[in-house]
Design brief:
Elements lengths: L2 E5 L4 H12 L3 E6 L7 H10 L5 E3 L5 H10 L4 E4 L6 H6 L1 H21 L4 E7 L23 H19 L4 E7 L1 E3 L18 H9 L6 E4 L11 E2 L1 E3 H15 L4 E7 L5 E2 H12 L5 E4 L8 E2 L4 H7 L7 H14 L7
Parallel strand pairs: 1-2, 1-4, 2-3, 4-5, 5-6, 6-11, 7-10, 8-13, 9-14
Antiparallel strand pairs: 9-12
Helix pairs in contact: 1-2, 1-8, 3-5, 5-6, 7-9, 7-11, 9-11
The structure holds nicotinamide-adenine-dinucleotide and UDP-4-deoxy-4-formamido-beta-L-arabinopyranose.
């Protein structure tokens, strides 16, 4: 059995990835402090997997807790999702973000080095490209200083793990740059469960669809795009999860630094998303135009061809799948995991 430690495995992307790992015959161990997730997800993961998936409560910033995991288990590789991810909150709490994300990753990498576990797969983000000079973005597009502390932690962790790989060449460092993950597991049992009013488009739309929120505010309709609203590369979270399995298959024990964009390669505008969602629910979703949101880039979508060529991975689910599954999750779980 190949054992994969999944930090942040109780979270949105981590929980879906754990399921795909089990399906592909891997042996994941979830490690999470529930700072942005709920224990109820664990039983649902077990239900979907049809078996118990081990869980360890802990914080990546507490070295002794990580050491205990590595002492008690032979960990073949780590998929590192654990981190804080709210852009606006990171502006208000920069030190907390650097501590949790950068310092936490530093401690995790140190424990991995000390226990001779050299396979590291990191949840990076298209945010490392900043405002793109051109689209689609390839892995060779320049990485830029981020415009918020959250984004900068991703840039810093990328550099830190690359420097470690230079110093300890046995390391296999895989940086997966996600575009915009949306959707939920088709069972409707797991999905994204944001605290409070969602910051991101898709969870906001789903809450408008079920009447929890009155109306979507579209941030800006005067951008230089086909309809004036921003363009993003939305990717179904199950496709994204499968991208991690493909990365494990390809990169495990292959020393070096491996960087992949995980996106569909298709850019949709905010209005495209509203239309797709309206179609999914069979009625018009209420929206109004609001001022631009600070820090938004005009357009951002991937050239995913490297992942296709090297990992044999490509996103397969459509925009209709994304909207259907997001809505299904929200409808079945109006209060997320609190139901
Ligand atoms: P999430 O908040 O749902 O999951 C993160 C998980 O990590 C949570 O369960 C949280 O409790 C846990 N965690 C946080 N700090 C921890 C710590 N110190 N110790 C142990 N556990 C800790 O977020 P997500 O959307 O699943 O994102 C997962 C990763 O992917 C994050 O690193 C995020 O920055 C990155 N990412 C997310 C997106 C996105 O839009 N969702 C896009 C690009 C990259
Ligand atoms: C998408 C589009 C908004 C909400 C963020 C992070 C990024 C990454 C993914 C982790 C934009 C518009 C949104 C709303 C709107 N996370 N919008 N009304 O900003 O592309 O990416 O999440 O790495 O780092 O920045 O995603 O879903 O917030 O926004 O009009 O209520 O929807 O302006 O054009 P974004 P998003």
């Amino acid at each position: 059995m190949t054992t994969i430690l999944v930090t942040g495995g109780a979270g949105y992307i981590g929980s879906h990835t754990v399921i795909e790992l089990v399906k592909a015959g891997y042996d994941p161990i979830i490690f999470d402090n529930f700072s942005n997730s709920k224990p109820a997800v664990l039983a649902r993961i077990n239900k979907i997997c049809g078996r118990h998936v081990p869980f360890i409560a802990g914080d990546i910033r507490v070295r002794e807790q990580l050491e205990a995991v590595f002492k008690e288990n032979k960990i073949d590789g780590v998929i590192h999702f654990a981190g804080l991810k709210a852009v606006g909150e990171s502006v208000k709490k920069p030190l907390e973000y650097y501590d949790n994300n950068v310092n936490g990753s530093r401690i995790l990498l140190g424990v991995m080095r000390d226990f001779n576990c050299h396979n590291f797969i990191f949840s990076s983000s298209a945010t490392v490209y900043g405002e793109p000079d051109s689209v689609p973005l390839t892995e060779n597009s320049p990485v830029k200083r981020a415009n918020c502390p959250y984004g900068q932690t991703k840039v810093d962790i990328e550099y830190m793990s690359e420097e470690l790989q230079k110093a300890v060449p046995e390391f296999s460092v895989t940086l997966l740059r996600y575009f915009n993950p949306v959707g939920a597991h088709e069972s409707g049992l797991i999905g994204e469960d944001p605290r409070g009013i969602p910051n991101n488009l898709m969870p906001y739309l789903t809450q408008v669809a079920v009447g929890k929120l009155p109306c979507l505010n579209i941030f800006g309709n005067d951008y230089p795009t086909k309809d004036g609203t921003c363009i993003r590369d939305y990717i179904h979270v199950v496709d994204l999860a499968k991208g991690h399995v493909a990365a494990i298959k390809h990169c495990l024990n292959k020393s070096g630094v491996h960087i992949y964009n995980l996106g569909t390669g298709i850019g949709y505008s905010v209005l495209d998303m509203v239309k797709a969602f309206s179609k999914a629910i069979g009625r018009e979703l209420p929206y109004k135009f609001a001022p631009r949101r600070a820090g938004d880039v005009v357009q951002c979508y991937a050239d995913p061809s490297r992942a296709k060529e090297e990992l044999g991975w490509t996103a397969e689910l459509t925009l209709d799948d994304m909207t259907r599954d997001s809505y299904n999750w929200q409808k079945n779980n109006p209060n997320g995991y609190d139901d």
